[in-house]
Write a structure and sequence with these properties.
The two termini are about 30 Å apart. The chain folds into two domains: about 210 residues, Cation efflux protein transmembrane domain (Alpha-lytic protease prodomain-like, Up-down Bundle); about 80 residues, 2-Layer Sandwich (Alpha-Beta Plaits), CATH 3.30.70. With about 290 residues, it is mainly alpha-helical.
Length: about 290
Amino acid sequence: MGDQQRYDQLKLGERGAVVSIAAYVFLSALKLGIGEISGSEALRADGLNNATDIVASVAVLVGLKLARKPADENHPYGHWKWETIASLIASFVMMAVGIEVLINAVKSTLYGSEQAPDLIAVWTGLFSAGVMYMVYRYNLSLARKIKSPAVMAAAKDNVSDALVSIGTVIGIVGSQFQMRWLDPLTAVIIGLIICKTAWEIFREASHHLSDGFDESAIRTFKDTVMQVDGVEDVKELRARNYGNNAIVDVVLLLKADLNFQEAHNIATRVEKELLKTDEVFEVHVHYEPS
């Protein structure tokens, strides 16, 4: 995949972040306002969740913009990792808010009002779930199209928010049937869901930033190399991520009696075969006598 094509994909990915930001600004204001009016702790917690999602989505947007910067003297491989750094920042913000929601929900459970929330909170929750599900479908489709970890993280956050809104509705409806403890309990569950989503995004982003790589993909790359005529064996094959770009280092074992040009041609064929894979951005091929 060429630099320009990847830059175009990152620019397209920015649309997903903008759509998320617009949805979160609207829904956060709506939920916090209606949550205050209706007296629903769960809806207020959901609104706070969306407020932090604004910050997380802005981090993703900034990360995608920085990732499009071309390579320079200090960053010879480019700035692709900013995309993953954005996901990492988003996870920190989400975890902080998840903990805050948990603390407030526990306080509300122990010292909250005995009055059931108004039913307007139910309709607000259902409407919010529908909006977030549509945003999730859009970002999921976009993330798969451009293979962006940052946009995929945003999509995971979107579907988590849709589920949280459904949970909010369940808690509010339950409180109408003399189970008033269900509304703050739902807020606790919402806080746990936020923390769980944050942890999953953090784990994936830190895995990439620490040069972790999918072992099944390594095996696939090795199988591809072994199918190239002239390759006797693969001594070593490693890969690392730069955003959603994979850079592959491979050491080939070739027949010892090959001349330089023949060995070079085999190495070139290996490079071309690996570059046919969408996620492979660059290949470094070395070869040694078998």
